[in-house]
From TrEMBL:
Residues 383-452 are annotated as: Disordered. Residues 383-394, 402-435 have a biased composition (Basic and acidic residues). It is found in: Nucleus. Interacts with RAP74. GO terms for biological process: response to salt stress. It comes from Panicum hallii var. hallii. It catalyses: O-phospho-L-seryl-[protein] + H2O = L-seryl-[protein] + phosphate; O-phospho-L-threonyl-[protein] + H2O = L-threonyl-[protein] + phosphate. Residues 74-246 form the FCP1 homology domain. This is RNA polymerase II C-terminal domain phosphatase-like. InterPro entries: BRCT_dom (IPR001357), BRCT_dom_sf (IPR036420), Fcp1 (IPR039189), FCP1_dom (IPR004274), FCP1_euk (IPR011947), HAD-like_sf (IPR036412), HAD_sf (IPR023214). It is an enzyme of class 3 (hydrolase). Keywords: Hydrolase, Metal-binding, Nucleus, Repressor, RNA-binding, Transcription, Transcription regulation. Its cofactor is Mg(2+); Mn(2+).
Length: 492
């Protein structure tokens, strides 16, 4: 039975009262109030080893600290931001997993250069390469003005600390705020129970929804950053990686720039729509929900052969995603419908959309809006004609193995261009893409170079159900060479 600090117990004499220590927490196994050793069978409280080794706090002390922290944050007009590392802020690969094409391009050499502006680094002690996501330094600088920030990764402690040094070399953003897998209180799950900040002011950026089962309302799901070839292979994508294609996300409109704008809107709404006296009752989860519902507000959707025949549409992930974005979903078409979502032009509802001049879009249109937090141009997500659909499945269906052609292209991606190669490219520079070129990219009417860029620019998205989708979201740009065709300069 727990005892509150204001409770007392009677000692041997009726005239003597002895205050029982509530043991608010332990440091090195000793209560930091009375010095009594912690009972080995006492598993109450939460360990905060990332703050200081051996620190363990009881529930009452955690609540007290969170209350004090909340007052300080609101006074400074700040919220709490929890940041995942891998595929959110960075992408890492083991040296042994570097592809032959990446080696040919000199990625390991670029990581060793003494260049203050480089964005790729070697972690010698771990035999790894790490690539910082474009815009990450500007993102952290601007976000720090609005949030108290934590790193929270399922990686090991040593790895988390090394990455934190790359992101925050002067230790101004994450002092004693780097949380790793050893700090989790539940296996394979992340939780806000190890954060000394109130849930009502916590915003989470992570590429994996599954690990936040208890805190999905706090989560902003990030588009995964697949820079290295091993990252693509890990998720089963048979396409060239950004590194092999000498491309990267653009800083101006990449994933981090996009989510920074969303965070600014959330911060402004939280603090500017309530009087200061009411701030303590504000809940950022409601703000996130309201901002998300603005994305597809005014859209009424009907789905056509997107879900299994025996499934209830209302229970499907895509239906729920659209509703979370503010759209109204229906099973029947009528004059109020604005969009028909389909994967086949031949369905009755798809033909109805064309005949009634309604938007006919691929399901990726909804997914893109979910990650970009803006309604996307419908013309970028049109439904593929039947004759092209079989080709599109190569890249649109995630998890498919590389074809022999893909493997051959990856193998020779870093080889020098021969005179025959240059002649062939010049001959076809103005020709339209045919069905035999670049499987899976619906680029009828575009030039071959554009098709090549789209094939590489496909983003890969995971959901809590393990479903994956592949579509062009973030625009990419070519990575500049420093000197010679084999020496790549990887700059953000």
């Amino acid at each position: 039975m727990s005892i509150s600090p204001d409770k007392f117990a009677t000692g041997p004499s009726k005239n003597v009262q002895v205050e029982l220590c509530p043991h608010p927490g332990y440091f090195g196994g000793l209560c930091f109030r009375c010095g009594k050793p912690r009972d080995e069978e006492d598993v109450s409280g939460v360990a905060f080893g990332y703050i200081h080794k051996g620190l363990r706090l009881g529930t009452s002390e955690i609540d007290r600290l969170r209350g004090a922290d909340l007052k300080n944050l609101l006074r400074e007009r700040k919220l709490v931001l929890i940041l995942d590392l891998d595929h959110t802020l960075i992408n890492s690969t083991k040296l042994q997993d570097i592809s032959s094409a990446e080696n040919e391009l000199g990625i390991r050499t670029a990581a060793l250069k003494d260049d203050p502006d480089r964005s790729i680094f070697t972690l010698d002690s771990m035999q790894m390469l790490t690539k910082l996501r474009p815009f990450v330094h500007k993102f952290l600088k601007e976000a720090s003005n609005m949030f108290e920030m934590y790193i929270y990764t399922m990686g090991d402690k040593a790895y988390a600390i090394e990455i934190a040094k790359l992101l925050d070399p002067t230790n101004v953003y994450f002092p004693s705020k780097v949380i790793s897998n050893s700090d989790c209180t539940q296996r394979h799950q992340k939780g806000l129970d190890v954060i000394l900040g109130a849930e009502s002011v916590a915003v989470i950026l992570d590429d994996t929804e599954y690990v936040w089962q208890k805190h999905k309302e706090n989560l902003i799901l990030m588009e995964r950053y697949h820079y290295f070839a091993s990252s693509c292979r890990q998720f089963g994508f048979g396409v060239r990686s950004l590194s092999e294609s000498m491309q990267d996300e653009r800083e101006s409109d990449g994933a981090l720039a996009t989510v920074l704008d969303v965070l600014k809107r959330i911060h402004a709404i939280f603090f500017d729509t309530a009087a200061e006296t009411d701030l303590s009752s504000q809940d950022v989860r409601q703000v996130i929900k309201a901002v998300r519902k603005e994305v597809l507000k005014g859209c009424k959707l009907v789905f056509s052969r997107v879900f299994p025949n025996n499934a209830r549409p209302q229970e499907q992930m895509m239906w729920k995603m659209a509703e979370h974005l503010g759209a109204v979903c229906s099973t029947d078409v009528d004059s109020t419908v604005t969009h028909v979502v389909a994967v086949d032009l031949g369905t009755e509802k798809a033909r109805w959309a064309v005949g009634n001049k309604k938007f006919l879009v691929h399901p990726r249109w909804i997914e893109a809006a979910n990650f970009r937090w803006h309604r996307q141009p419908e013309e970028d997500f049109h439904v593929i004609p039947p004759k092209e659909k079989s080709r599109d499945k190569v890249n649109a269906v995630c998890g498919q193995k590389e074809t022999s052609k893909d493997k051959e292209e990856n193998t020779v991606a870093g080889e020098k261009e021969t005179s025959n190669d240059r002649k062939e490219e010049n001959d076809v520079a103005d020709q339209k893409e045919t069905s035999n070129d670049y499987d899976g990219n619906d680029v009828d009417g575009q030039k071959k170079d554009d098709a090549k860029e789209n094939a590489v620019a496909c983003r890969f998205v995971g959901t809590d159900r393990g479903d994956c989708f592949c579509y062009p979201l973030v625009q990419v740009q070519d990575v500049k060479f420093k000197s010679g065709p084999r020496e790549i300069s990887l700059l953000t």
